[in-house]
Amino acid sequence: MNNKIFELKLDQYKPLREIVFETIRNAIISGDLKPGERVMEVQMAESLGVSRTPVREAIRKLELEGLVIMLPRKGAYVSDLSVKDLTEVMEIRASLEGLAAGLASIRIDEAEIEDLEVRALKFHKSIEDEDVDVLILRDLEFHDAIFRASRNERLIQLNNNLIEQVQRFREIYHKKVHKSKETSKEHYEIVEAISNRDVDKAEKLARIHIENAEKFILKTMEGNNS
């Protein structure tokens, strides 16, 4: 077990159990704890330098989120990323992204358009560094900006509820840097449609953007299982 992965980042404003939970969850989402890998309570507690209680609580919460599964007489394991999971998550995300882009085309102001252009540029520039963590962050920031511009708080909340599930698939996608270049091109096309107030085109491009990602991730998952 890599101790660096599980280094606790203490926060005086958060209880220890919450920090332990976030640390383990982030390790799963980032892929440091891989699908099918066992989450051993005792070793995890020793690695984090805490008692078993907050680790046990974290595992229970992760099970409720679907990131961990409990197998009788075997213990806790990181849940697999299935084709069904991918399809369900991306179907929802494509609909949400399309709606957000369409609403943003109507409600976005000039300052937000400039901000969206900057975020698209930052994502593009980060491709050269081939830093997957930065790519994922820049991608997340770009899409968050579109949702904020939609001015629909419930839509934003629905997107936030989906983030953890989407992040595990983002890891697969952005590890292939050549695909990030295609993603960047699609980002610019979406920005152009939004800035032109073309509702139908923005919504269509946003949906296609997610569908393209789904196709590639599905192909990658099938390749890994072959």
Q: Any overview of this molecule?
A:
The longest helix is centred in the C-terminal third of the chain and has 27 residues. The chain is mostly helical. Helix 4 crosses helix 7. It has a 3-stranded antiparallel beta sheet with strand order 1-3-2. The protein has 9 helices and 3 strands; from the N terminus they run αβααββαααααα. The chain has 2 domains: 63 residues, Orthogonal Bundle (Arc Repressor Mutant, subunit A); 143 residues, GntR ligand-binding domain-like (Four Helix Bundle (Hemerythrin (Met), subunit A)), CATH 1.20.120.
Q: Describe the global form.
A: elongated
Average the pLDDT over all residues and give the rounded result: 88
Structural class by secondary-structure content: mainly alpha
CATH C-level category of the largest domain: Mainly Alpha
Order of helices and strands: HEHHEEHHHHHH
What CATH architecture of the largest domain do you see? Up-down Bundle
Number of domains: 2
Strand order of the largest sheet: 1-3-2
> What is the helix tally?
9
Oligomer: single chain
Low-confidence stretches: none
Main sheet makeup: 3 strands, antiparallel
